[in-house]
Design a protein that fits this description.
Keywords: ATP-binding, Nucleotide-binding, Transport. By secondary structure, this protein is of the alpha/beta class. It contains 9 helices and 10 strands. It has 2 domains: 160 residues, Rossmann fold; 73 residues, no CATH class. The chain has a 6-stranded mixed beta sheet with strand order 6-7-8-3-9-10, sandwiched between helices. A 4-stranded antiparallel beta sheet has the order 2-1-4-5, covered by helices on one side. The mean pLDDT is 92. Bound molecules: adenosine-5'-triphosphate and magnesium ion.
Length: 259
């Protein structure tokens, strides 16, 4: 079986009140996607289309109103105790701003080691070495492990965020706008790193971005979201070259191309 994740008919509305008692449209409106083992699904759509909500529902951080998230054949909402802990090990987030997941008072190496400690990976003596291996894996000089997050560049900080995500040897990474805060040249380096990791470690990912030009390079498949729904989904090549939906065509037209 090559299927790793299946999302079925997910619906989510936030209980925010709009003026005059109006209800906001649902953040997710019957969303279904599949991610195969070792493959990357690019999830693209404009701001507010529901991408992060979908990512958070898959991670178990937001509870959907209805529908199911099925990881490796098991429904995630039904997990508790050890099974839930095992799921958390197998599915890891990478966020736009790793500041949120790194303790500002700790040297970044300690934050990565904390992930190993938290999942009880290796012996305490092993873990020091594994932190350095992870730094090496994401292309960071191990000497940087002793620095505070504020004393790293944005790109270095995102590499630390990726190292922390890799600590538990996950099978699926949910990367929510992981390069959006970075300069163009640094974006390209981080995208290359993510592609190398997919090749070398066989880790699957959902790559969330508002930029179709970014997902084109990293994704095997693309899902286009618009106002809480997936309006188009298919292999990257097909979506880029033969878009079926008007909204996808609008996104394509917005990609800056060298002339
Ligand atoms: N915690 C929340 N409470 C209330 N409404 C929310 C919450 N989180 C998201 N929303 C609303 O749900 C909709 C989808 O938001 P979501 O963050 O999933 O979009 P997104 O596609 O990730 O956007 P962006 O590209 O700006 O990150 C938006 O209308 C947003 O305002
Ligand atoms: Mg978002």
């Amino acid at each position: 079986m090559t299927e790793l994740l299946r999302v079925e008919h997910l619906r989510k509305s936030y209980a925010t009140a709009l003026p005059w008692g109006r209800k906001p449209p649902p953040a997710l409106n019957d969303v279904s996607v599949v991610v195969e083992r070792g493959k990357t699904l690019g999830l693209v759509g404009e701001s507010g289309s529901g991408k992060s909500t979908l990512g958070r529902c898959i991670l178990g951080l937001t509870r959907p109103d209805s529908g199911a998230v099925i990881f490796d054949g098991v429904e995630v909402q039904a997990l508790s105790g050890r099974a839930l802990a095992a799921f958390r090990r197998r599915v890891q987030p990478v966020f736009q701003d790793p500041f949120g997941s790194l303790d500002p008072r700790w040297p970044v190496g300690r934050s990565v080691r904390e992930s190993l400690d938290c999942f009880g990976i290796g012996t305490p003596a092993d873990r020091e070495r594994r932190v350095l291996d992870l730094f090496d894996r994401v292309g960071l000089n191990p000497a940087l492990a002793g620095r505070l997050p504020t004393h790293l560049s944005g790109g270095q900080r995102q590499r630390v965020g990726i190292a922390a995500a890799l600590a538990s040897e996950p099978e699926l990474i949910i990367a929510d706008e992981p390069v959006s805060a970075l300069d163009m040249s640094v974006q390209a380096q981080i995208l290359n790193l993510l592609m190398d990791l997919q090749q070398d470690l066989g880790v699957a990912s959902i790559f969330i971005t508002h930029d179709l030009g970014v997902v084109e390079h990293v994704s095997d498949n693309i899902a286009v979201m618009y106002r809480g729904s997936i309006v188009e989904m298919g292999e990257t090549e097909a979506v880029m070259n033969h878009p079926q939906h008007d909204y996808t065509r609008t996104l394509l037209a917005a990609i800056p191309r060298p002339r």
